[in-house]
Amino acid sequence: MKYKLVWEDDFNIDGPVNPKIWNVEHAGTGFGNNEDQYYTPREKNLYCKDSILHIVAHQENYKHRKYTSAKITSYGKKSIGYGMVEVKAKLPKGKGTWPAIWMLAESIRNGVRWPLCGEIDIMENIGRNHEEVHFSLHSKLYNHVIKTQQTYFETIPGVTERFSVYKMIWEPNYIKFFVDDKEYVTFTKGEDNRDTTKLGWPFEPPYFLILNLAIGGNWGGEIDDLIFPQEFLIDYVKVYERID
Questions:
Q1: What CA–CA distance (Å, rounded) separates 205 from 241?
Q2: For 115-125, what is each residue's pLDDT tens digit?
Q3: How far apart are CA 178 and CA 18, in angstroms?
Q4: Fewest CB within a 10 Å sphere: which of 33, 35, 88, 137?
Q5: pTM of the predicted model, to two decimals?
Q6: C-alpha span between 209 and 81 (Å, rounded)
Q7: Pick the catalytic residue: 35, 124, 183, 204?
Q8: Are 203 and 190 spatial neighbours (Cβ–Cβ below 8 Å)?
Q9: Which one from 119, 154, 161, 204 is the annotated catalytic residue?
Q10: 171 noted as active-site residue
Q11: What is the SS3 assignment for 155?
Q12: pLDDT for residue 244 is more than 80
């Protein structure tokens, strides 16, 4: 297959993220997972320096939360369709961290609620198992709330010590996940007799990208306050469309 780069960010301007690409979250609602952080746009939580995006979590009292962090989305600014996404990142380390590279359908902003809209998790990691990398799909019929999600995880030594490239190839009938060009799992539409309607496979463009570092919550679990501050570092984001 051949791909054409359609948008990217290499975070090469020191300071805030590029507002033409990213929205910055400012909220602490728990986000449906009882997460313990408050996302802020402050420089101490989110900044670019030396061509690296820093998403930084702190243990501090902020509004009604005891932790702060950051979350950015490309919604309304840069869309993602069938093709390939690459994110080069270094994961934080410590009990309670929950970094994620993921996508939601743009329809979620137009009244199609989660999980009917569909969610694609290119990378998730939880600090208590800091070398486990998770790849998942969520839909109305197959999602983590009812413990039916399509998911796979594997231990990949060193992901908190080095930058790795997390890659997804997205086609109408399958989604593949890679780390450093090694394929780990492919989810195929209708496999294992799964529903092929939008209830079971809602993964149609356009989607948008989300980068965040959550703390605690239903999945992040117990938090070790001695680990902070912790950083989720992103070297670049590259989004491609297929041209053959």
A1: 12
A2: 999 999 999 99
A3: 27
A4: 33
A5: 0.97
A6: 11
A7: 124
A8: no
A9: 119
A10: no
A11: strand
A12: no
